[in-house]
Amino acid sequence: MIYQSDALTVTRLDGDIAELHFDLKGESVNKFNNATVGDLTAALDAIDTEQGLKGLLVTSGKPVFIVGADITEFTAMFGAGKDEILKFTAVNNGNFNRLQNLPFPTCVAINGYAMGGGLEVCLACDFRVMSDQAKIGLPETKLGILPSWGGTVRLPRLIGVDEAVTWITSGQEQAADAALKAGAVDAVAAHAELREVALSVLHSAVDGKLDYTTRREAKSSPLPMNDTEATMAFFTMKAMVQQQAGRNYPAPIKVVDVIEQARGKDLEGALAVEAEGFVELAMTPVAAALVGVFLGDQLLAKKAKGWEKQADRKVERAAVLGAGIMGGGIAYQSAYKGVPIRMKDINQEGLDLGLSEAGKLLSKRVNRGRMTPEKMAEVLNSIDPVLSYEGFDDVDIVVEAVVENAKVKHSVLAEVEQKVTDDTVLTSNTSTISITSLAEALKRPENFCGMHFFNPVHAMPLVEVIRGDKTSDTAIARTVAFARQMGKKPVVVRDCPGFLVNRVLFPYFDGFSKLVRDGADFQAVDKVMQRWGWPMGPAYLMDVVGIDTGVHAAGVMAEGFPDRMQLDFKTATEVMYENNRYGQKNGKGFYDHGTDKRGKPKKEASDTAYQLIAPVAGERREFEADDIIMRMMLPMATEMARCLEEDIVGTPAEADMALIYGLGFPPFRGGIFRWMDSVGMHTIAAASEKFSDLGKTYELTDGMRAKLADGATYY
Does pLDDT of 314 surpass 90? Predict the structure, then answer.
C-alpha cells in the first residue's frame, strides 16, 4: 500500500503500475469534498516518492466514478469571498496539474457517472477508457457557475471549441458513444471488461506503443486558432448561446468568454482566466439561487425517502376515479412508470377521453424516438378502463380526480371506500377543498389524504401530499412512495384552503386584479412579470389555468381567508368568466388562443377582452416595472411567510421548491424565500409600507417583522 485514507488509496500492481482508487467511506458516491481534495494532494505526494513506477491507473470503488465537487460546501465558500473561492479552485487545479505532469502515463477507467470535477480529473489523465454504461458531463452552468478545475481549458483542446462549448453551456450528460465520437474518451469497453481494457491501454503507453507526451502538450498549449478563425467562431457561438440561455442565466455566455480569453494562453494562464470567471459567477445571486435549488431538491428527495421507508408496502396496483384530462394524465403517468392502474368513470365517453389523453402522450414519445410502439402498447395495456368498481378490492391506492365540487367528492369517496379493502389508501386530487372536510364522508379517515397533481400531470414535477386532521402516517408514507414511483417530487403539507401552492398563488392573482383595477394594461403586466422570470404573466397564466377554474378557486380562497382574499370590487377575471371567456380551453380569455403553422399554441391580444373589462378597469396609466413586480410578488411572499409560520410547510427550502416545481417560479431566483433574502427584508418592508393601502396581503407577518428587527434571513 503506497497510500491510504478514508477517501482514496494508492496500491502497487504488477508491472510497476500504481492504482489510484477513489472510494469515499460513508458515502454512496465519490465526490471532491475538502477532505478528498486534501487526500488527493497527499496521495500524489506519496506517488512522487514511490520508486520505479511506470504508469498510473485511476479507478473508482463506487457504482459511479466521481459526481464532482461537494455542492453542500458551496454556500459557505461562495459567501466567504474571492480569496476563499480562488483557494478552492487552486488546490485541486494543483492536484490535476500534478496528475497531468507525472513522469509516466496515466489512464482512467470511467465506470459510471463522471460529472463536473469527476470529468475534469479524467481530462487531466492521458487516456480515458469509458464503460458502455457510463455517462460524463460538465453540468456546472446548471448551478450558475462554470467548471473550475480545467474543464474550460482541457476539453476544448481535446474535442474542439465548438463541441466543448455545446457540452459545457448545455450541461448535458454524454453517453459513451457520443463521448467516443467527440474524442473526449479514447475507448469504450463493455462494463465487465473496463478494468482489463484500461490496463491494456496503460501498458501500451508504458511500452511506448501509445504516445502520451504529445497529448499533454496539446492540453497545455494555446488553442490552434488564428485571430480570424477565432473572431468568427466566438461571435457565432456567443449569439447562439445567448439566445438559448436567455438574459437571466449569465454562466453559459461567461463560458464562451472564458474560452475565448484563454485561447492564446498556456495551461497556467488559461486556468487563471477560468478561475477569475468562476469567481465572478460564484458571487452572483443567480449562483446562490441555483445552488440553493440543487440543495433544495436533495432535501425533498431525502424527506421523501424517509417517508418511503415508513411505507407499509409498495404500491403494486393503483386506481383513478374520473377519466378526464387530469384522470387520463394520472393514469398515463402511473402506467408509464410501471404501476398498472384502473381508470374508472361513470360513462364511456369519459373513459375514451382519458385513454385518448394517455394515447396522445405516448404517441409523442414514439414520434420523438423515445419509446418503441411495442412499449407504447404495453403501457396502454396496463391502463384498465372500467365503468364499475370491479377489481377495486386489489388496489393499494386510489386517486379521486372527479369534478371540483365538495358534494360530488363526498359522494364518490364514500362510495369507493365501500369497494376497497380496509387498508387501501384513498387520496383526493382536489386543488382547493379541505382534506379534513372531505374526510368527514369516510369511515376510515386515517386512510385518506390529499394527492394534488399539477396540470399537465406529465410535465409538472410537483405533487402536494396533504395531511388532514385524522390522516395517519401510514397513508402519507404510501402516498409519498406512490408519488415517487410516478417520478414526481412530493412535498408533504398540512391542510388549509388551497393547501400551499394555490394558497400563495391567489394573492398573486389578487395583486394582478388590483393593478388592472388601478389602470394597468394586463399585457404590460404580463410582459414585466415574464421579463422578471416567470414562464408567463398572470393574465396568460389565468388563461392557461382556466378562468372558470380560477374564479371557482378564488371563491374558495376568499371564503377561507376573508380578511385578506375577499376583494371588494369586481375583477377583470370575473368579467371574463361572466362572458364565457374561459381561456385556452375554449380559445378566448384575456387573449384569443389558437395554434400556429406547426400546431403549437399561440395567443393574440383581444380587443374584445379590453372592451369587456373597461367598466372595471381604471383609467389606463403606466406603472414603473419595479412597482408592478412588488405589487405582484409581495402578496405571494407574505402569504408564504404565513404558511411557514403556521407550519403548513416544514422549511423555506420545501416551500421554494414547491413553487419552482408546481408553478414554474423562476429557478434563477431560487424561490420566494431565497428571493426575499437576496433583496433583503428591508426592501420588502419598504414595499409593504409603500403599498399598505392595498390591503392586508401587503402587510408583513410577525415572523417577517422579527427577521427585519434581527437582520435575519430565511436561509
Answer: yes
Domain ranges in the chain? Answer: 3-221, 314-495, 502-710
Class (C level, CATH) for 502-710: mainly alpha
Residue 16 pairs with which residues in a beta bridge? none
State the distance between the two ends of the chain, measured CA to CA, in whole angstroms: 44
For residues 72 and 509, give the distance between their C-alpha atoms in angstroms, rounded to a whole number: 35
Q: What are phi and psi of 419, to 5 degrees?
A: -100, -5
pLDDT at site 396 = 98
Residue 12's φ and ψ, nearest 5 degrees, are: -100, 125
Residues 629-648: b if buried by 16+ CB within 10 A, e if exposed: bbbbbbbbbbbbbbbbeeeb
Amino acid at 493: V
The rounded distance, in Å, linking the Cα atoms of 283 and 482 is 39
Reported residue count of the chain is: 715
Helices (H), 370-472: 373-381, 406-417, 435-438
Q: List strands edge to edge, sheet with 397-400.
A: 383-386, 341-344, 318-321, 397-400, 425-428, 448-453, 462-467, 489-494
The number of helix segments (H) and strand segments (E) in the chain equals 31, 20
Given CA atoms 530, 534, 537, 543 in this order, what sign does their dihedral have?
Answer: positive
Q: Which candidate, 380, 482, 387, 388, places its Cα nearest to that of 426? A: 482
Q: Are 561 and 570 in contact (CB under 8 A)?
A: no
Per-residue burial over 536-560, b = 16 or more CB atoms within 10 Å of its CB, e = otherwise: ebbbbbbbbbbbbbbbbbbebbbeb
User: Considering the chain, what is the average pLDDT of its residues?
Assistant: 96
List beta partners, residue 106. Answer: 56
User: Which tens digits make up the pLDDT trace of 591-628?
Assistant: 999 988 888 888 999 999 999 999 999 999 999 999 99
Burial of 366 by CB count in 10 Å (0-12 exposed, 13-18 middle, 19+ buried)?
middle
Confidence tier at 107 by pLDDT (50, 70, 90): very high
pTM (whole model) above 0.90: yes
Among the listed residues 191, 203, 410, 452, the single catalytic one is: 452
Rounded to whole angstroms, how far apart are CA atoms 674 and 508? 17
Q: Which of 457, 399, 468, 460 is nearest to 433 (CA)?
A: 468
Radius of gyration of the chain (CA): 29
Strands 462-467 and 448-453: antiparallel
Determine the pLDDT at residue 600.
85
Task: Compute how many other C-beta atoms are within 10 angstroms of the C-beta atom of residue 173.
Answer: 17
Please indicate whether the domains covering 3-221 and 314-495 agree at the CATH topology level: no
Cis ω before 666 (30° cut-off from 0): no
Catalytic, 452? Answer yes
Cα–Cα distance, 464 to 662 (Å, whole number): 9
CB atoms near residue 435 (< 10 Å): 27
Residue 695's region, left for phi above 0, alpha for psi from -120 to 50, else beta, is left
* Secondary element (H or E) of residue 452: strand 448-453
Ordered alpha helix ranges (H), 444-521: 473-485, 501-517
Looking at the domain 3-221, which fold is it?
2-enoyl-CoA Hydratase; Chain A, domain 1 (3.90.226)
Per the structure block, which three cell numbers stand in for 444?
376510515
Q: What single string gives the DSSP state of each residue in 599-618?
A: S-EEEEE-HHHHHHHGGGSP
Which class in CATH covers the domain with range 314-495?
A: alpha beta
pLDDT tens sequence across 226-266 = 999 999 999 999 999 999 999 999 999 999 999 999 999 99
